[in-house]
Design the sequence.
C-alpha cells in the first residue's frame, strides 16, 4: 500500500511550548532528588531537545548530561535487544519501559553528538561504555519510515533526528580526531584515522537506498527527487560528517610547515572538506522551499560551518579561479540566510543574537572579497 494515499494524521492543536517548558524546568530539582524513572529521563531529554532547537547549546548540553547519567543508572546504555544479560532486566523493568528507555538512549546519543561537535565538549556516550547495537530491523525500516514521513503521515517506528549510523560515525570521528587524546596523534596516525572514517562514511552512503542516497557532491544538475525535511537533514549530516572528518587533516604538522611527503594527501583531504561545504550551501539553497518555519536554530550550524570552511579556503588560495566562484557562493548563502532569518518567529531576546550572526556572515563575505582583490592586485603589479 502506498503510504501517500493513506489518510493523514489530524493536525494537533497548538501548544504553548514556552509555558510547558517552564513547568518542566521547575520539576528538575524534584527529578534529580528522586529515584531515576522513565518519566524523569523523558522530561530531561525533552528539555535538552527544546534547548537544542532554540540554539541554547550550553543548556542543551547540561540537560543532556543529566539525562545521560539517569540513563546510565537505569541501565539503558547496555540494554539492547541482543544483550545477553541486560542490566535493566535485573531491576525488573517492564519490557515496554526497557524499549522506551532504549529509544530515549538513542535520542540522547544523537543529541550529544551534535552538541559535542558544535561546542567541543567531551562525549559521555562512548563505544567503550555503551552497547551501540542498533534497534532490531532499524536499517530495514528506516527508509520505509522516511517515505511515510515524506507523505506527512505517522511512521510506525521512531524516526530519530539523524540516521543513528551517522551519529555513530560522528562519535567515532570525535574520538579519533578531536578528543584530547587525538590531538596528540602523529600525522601518519591522523591520516590513517581519516582514511578509515572516510571508508566507513562511504559504506554508509552506499547502504542508503538509491532514491535517498546523498551524492558525493551536490549541484543543481543533480537535484534531490525526494526533497523533504528528513532528506534535508540526511544530506546535511552526511556533508557535515565529510567536512569534520577531512578538516582534521589541517592539523598535520607537515602541512602547516609546508613540508613534502604527505602534502598531497592532506591537500586532497582538505579539498574534500571544502567540496562538502559547497555541497551543504548549494543543497540548502535548492531545498529552501521545503524548510519549515522556525527551523533557523536547528539548521544554522550546517551553513555556518560550511561558510567558515569555504572562507578559510579563500584566504588560503585567494588567487585560485575557484575562489571567485566560492565568493559568489558566499554571497548567495548570505542572501539565503537572510531569508531564513525572516521566517524565524523570534523572541525579543533573540534579535540581538540573530543580528550578530547576520553581521558575522556579512563580514566573512567582505573579508573574502578583500583577500581576492588583494591577491589579484599583487599579481597584476
Sequence:
Amino acid at each position: 500500500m502506498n503510504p501517500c494515499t493513506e489518510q493523514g494524521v489530524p493536525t494537533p492543536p497548538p501548544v504553548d511550548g514556552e509555558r510547558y517548558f517552564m513547568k518542566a524546568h521547575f520539576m528538575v530539582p524534584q527529578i534529580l532528588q528522586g529515584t531515576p524513572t522513565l518519566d524523569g529521563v523523558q522530561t530531561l531529554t525533552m528539555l535538552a531537545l527544546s534547548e537544542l532547537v532554540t540554539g541554547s547549546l550550553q543548556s542543551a548540553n547540561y540537560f543532556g548530561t543529566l539525562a545521560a547519567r539517569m540513563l546510565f543508572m537505569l541501565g539503558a546504555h547496555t540494554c539492547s535487544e541482543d544483550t545477553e544479560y541486560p542490566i535493566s532486566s535485573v531491576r525488573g523493568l517492564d519490557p515496554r519501559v526497557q524499549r522506551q528507555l532504549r529509544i530515549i538512549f538513542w535520542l540522547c546519543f544523537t543529541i550529544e553528538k551534535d552538541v559535542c561537535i558544535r561546542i567541543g565538549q567531551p562525549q559521555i556516550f562512548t563505544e567503550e561504555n555503551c552497547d551501540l547495537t542498533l534497534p532490531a530491523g532499524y536499517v530495514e525500516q528506516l527508509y520505509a519510515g522516511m517515505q511515510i514521513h515524506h507523505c506527512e503521515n505517522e511512521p510506525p517506528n521512531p524516526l530519530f533526528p539523524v540516521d543513528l549510523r551517522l551519529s555513530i560515525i560522528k562519535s567515532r570521528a570525535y574520538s579519533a580526531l578531536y578528543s584530547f587524546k587525538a590531538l596528540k596523534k602523529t600525522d601518519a596516525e591522523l591520516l590513517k584515522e581519516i582514511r578509515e572514517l572516510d571508508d566507513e562514511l562511504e559504506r554508509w552512503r552506499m547502504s542508503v537506498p538509491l532514491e535517498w542516497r546523498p551524492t558525493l557532491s551536490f549541484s543543481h544538475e543533480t537535484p534531490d527527487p525526494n526533497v523533504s525535511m528528513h532528506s534535508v537533514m540526511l544530506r546535511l549530516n552526511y556533508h557535515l560528517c565529510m567536512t569534520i572528518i577531512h578538516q582534521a587533516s589541517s592539523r598535520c604538522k607537515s602541512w602547516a610547515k609546508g613540508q613534502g611527503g604527505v602534502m598531497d594527501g592532506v591537500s586532497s583531504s582538505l579539498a574534500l572538506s571544502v567540496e562538502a561545504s559547497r555541497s551543504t550551501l548549494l543543497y540548502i539553497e535548492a531545498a529552501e522551499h521545503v524548510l519549515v518555519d522556525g527551523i533557523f536554530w536547528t539548521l544554522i550550524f550546517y551553513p555556518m560551518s560550511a561558510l567558515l570552511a569555504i572562507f578559510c579556503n579563500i584566504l588560503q588560495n585567494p588567487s585560485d579561479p575557484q575562489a571567485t566562484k566560492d565568493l559568489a557562493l558566499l554571497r548567495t548563502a548570505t542572501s539565503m540566510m537572510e531569508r531564513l532569518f525572516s521566517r524565524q518567529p523570534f523572541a525579543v531576546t533573540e534579535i540581538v543574537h540573530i543580528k550578530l550572526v547576520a553581521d558575522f556572515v556579512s563580514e566573512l563575505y567582505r573579508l573574502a572579497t578583500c583577500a581576492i582583490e588583494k591577491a589579484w592586485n599583487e599579481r597584476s603589479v
